[in-house]
Amino acid sequence: MFEQLPTVPTSQELLDKAFRRASRAEDNESMVQNAGNIISDNLSNLVRKFPSFERLPPFYREMADIIVGVDAMRISLSRLAWASKQARQITKDCIGKMKRSRVQDSTQLRKAAFGRFSSVMKSVEKDLVFLNDARNMLRKMPTIDPTLPTVLIAGYPNVGKSSFITQVTGARPEVASYPFTTRGIYVGHFYRGDQKYQVVDTPGLLDRPLEERNEIERQTMAALNHLQGVVLYILDPSDHCGYPLRSQLRLAEDLKSSLKLPIVVVANKADILRYESVPGMSTETGQGVNEVLEMLVSLLRSKRPDKSRTDV
Ligand SMILES: Nc1nc2c(ncn2[C@@H]2O[C@H](COP(=O)(O)OP(=O)(O)OP(=O)(O)O)[C@@H](O)[C@H]2O)c(=O)[nH]1
Ligand SMILES: [Mg+2]
Q1: Reported pTM
Q2: pLDDT given at position 113
Q3: What is the architecture of the domain spanning 150-307?
Q4: Cys bridge to 229: 36, 82, 150, 153, which one at CB 3.0-4.6 A?
Q5: Which residues surround ligand 2, an ion (CB under 5 A)?
Q6: Whose CA is nearest to atom 27 of ligand 1?
């Protein structure tokens, strides 16, 4: 989504570029014109290449807000737009004066204009640095696609979440970094007919009691509500995962009340222990996995009735 964001130069880099270009010109007027164009065009291009946050899908907008702060970006971008206009105005004023004055004054006027370019660039120095940092962070944003029907995997550590994603998506899932954890999130895909589905595992987020969450994690959970998703909550009724079933059932209930997405609870490791209250599967032997997947697919289909006809 944010792969297209341009690198953002520093003030000094942009000034150097502008003055370098100017130095190739024949006379003072062209020097000012070239430098002014470089500064003005580069800044307005930057503004154009950053997304208009109002038009982003809500999932991306919220994630961008969590990661870098949408308001702060908007303010910095509007300051760049201002600086771009200033550079154009300085150019226009200077050239106007040059045309009215004696030839020997024009070097003076050109130097004055360059001084003004420098101070405009100085005043957006912090904005450029901020936007470049923002760009680098946004590009690392999870490759979750909010337009795809999504299975979000939840459940305590060791219950078999990673095993499930490997079972149903075959290939090794893609890893993307996330703002609140160094562990990365895992995104895998599978198809039913032409319809692509994504399966997302968010280590550190949907695998422990809600009260342990910080503000960023809470915001991220709210962003997940914008996905066309269902939650697959995996239980390990055997003691193998190291967490009592009671705690696991409680987390399932907590997630049901804190997320707006439907939650399907299944019991994994059916090869070693059967738990009759919910559907069972084993991500080790593969038993029951397809049935669980079909259940998730039909839930997702029922959530998007408009697409169901193409979704064979
Ligand atoms: N017997 C049995 N073991 C399983 C099954 N599924 C997973 N395991 C084992 O359980 C352990 C944890 O599996 P993972 O898939 O890594 O669990 P996870 O939920 O991703 O764990 P975290 O990433 O730590 O949250 C591994 O040793 C698996 O081999 C199963 O169906 N039966
Ligand atoms: Mg895992």
Answers
A1: 0.74
A2: 98
A3: 3-Layer(aba) Sandwich (3.40)
A4: 150
A5: 161-162
A6: 158
